[in-house]
């Protein structure tokens, strides 16, 4: 079956021979989101985009990546209007400060609904702390990534249900998935596939994940052996990058990858 425009990135991710195709997809989405936000042809000068960045702000990790990207002027412009909005709303919250306990604290309706769920296990003893938790609980770049990531999970399900031969071959030969994305994939499949389809998919994915983890553990074991003088002259085999691949498999992402930087 001919690939369609929206299926190409997912097919390419499987062809990349990565430890996790969805880590590959997520990295591309993150690079695109950063360039959209702060890149040379970015949209931060547009009023509607600035409204969204003022409203959502950014998480700590994406502030760090924006700084590493290098567009200091663009970052300054985004931060100025965002912090002006924060300043105005924080002033209102401080003027109506009230002490209390837990979720029963009065929270003024500045952004409560727009900021997502209360952090699990978190409680505040006053209204300002409660507002700060909601204020810092969202990120414009994270939201862009998550929205598109969900579309690629849906694309996976669509291709699998089509029984597309090219995709089935790529799926069969994949190196497995990182644990977080494997969980997401199973959740998406469970909600979208019938029982027989799910059993067929599990018959591919479950042995693949076992083999994937066996391979990583074997590489990590050999990596450690190479620090033993008895093995110092032995070949590295596939173990030179075992630590970063093991970290990716356990937690997702690319721990050894340098932050995206603007092209000079």
**Alpha-beta classification:** mainly alpha
Cα-based radius of gyration, to the nearest Å: 23 Å
Largest sheet: none
Number of strand elements: 0
Number of helices: 11
Q: Termini distance?
A: 40 Å
Unreliable sequence segments:
101-119
> What pattern of helices and strands is seen along the backbone?
HHHHHHHHHHH
Strand composition percent: under 5%
How many structural domains? 2
Overall pLDDT confidence: 88
The outline comes out as: globular
Helix content: 55-70%
Q: How would you explain this protein's 3D organization?
A:
With 264 residues, this protein is an all-alpha fold. The chain folds into two domains: 9-141, no CATH class; 153-251, no CATH class. Helix content is 62%, strand content 0%. It has eleven helices and no strands. It has helices at 8-15, 21-38, 47-56, 60-69, 72-95, 127-135, 140-162, 165-172, 179-192, 195-225, 242-251. Helix 2 runs antiparallel to helix 7 and helix 10 packs antiparallel against helix 11 (242-251). It is globular, with a radius of gyration of 23 Å. Mean pLDDT is 88; it is low at 101-119.
């Amino acid at each position: 079956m001919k690939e369609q425009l929206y299926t190409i990135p997912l097919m390419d991710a499987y062809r990349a021979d990565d430890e996790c195709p969805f880590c590959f997809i997520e990295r591309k989405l993150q690079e695109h989101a950063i360039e959209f936000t702060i890149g040379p042809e970015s949209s931060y000068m547009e009023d509607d985009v600035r409204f969204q960045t003022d409203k959502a702000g950014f998480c700590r990790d994406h502030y760090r990546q924006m700084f590493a990207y290098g567009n200091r002027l663009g970052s300054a412009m985004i931060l100025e209007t965002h912090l002006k909005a924060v300043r105005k709303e924080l002033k209102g919250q401080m003027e109506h400060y009230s002490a209390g306990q837990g979720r029963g604290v009065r929270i003024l309706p500045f952004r409560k609904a727009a900021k997502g769920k209360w952090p699990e296990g978190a409680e505040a003893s006053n209204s300002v702390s409660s507002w700060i938790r909601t204020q810092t609980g969202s990120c414009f770049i994270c939201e862009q990534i998550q929205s598109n990531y969900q579309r690629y999970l849906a694309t996976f399900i669509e291709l699998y249900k089509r029984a597309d031969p090219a995709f089935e071959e790529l799926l069969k030969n994949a190196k497995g998935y990182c644990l977080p994305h494997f969980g997401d994939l199973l959740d998406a499949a469970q909600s979208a596939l019938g029982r027989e389809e799910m059993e067929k998919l599990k018959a591919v994915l479950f042995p693949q994940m076992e083999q994937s983890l066996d391979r990583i553990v074997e590489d990590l074991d050999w990596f450690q052996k190479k620090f033993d003088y008895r093995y110092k002259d032995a070949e590295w085999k596939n173990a030179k990058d075992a630590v970063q691949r093991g970290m990716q498999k356990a937690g997702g992402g690319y721990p050894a990858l340098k932050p995206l930087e603007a092209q000079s």
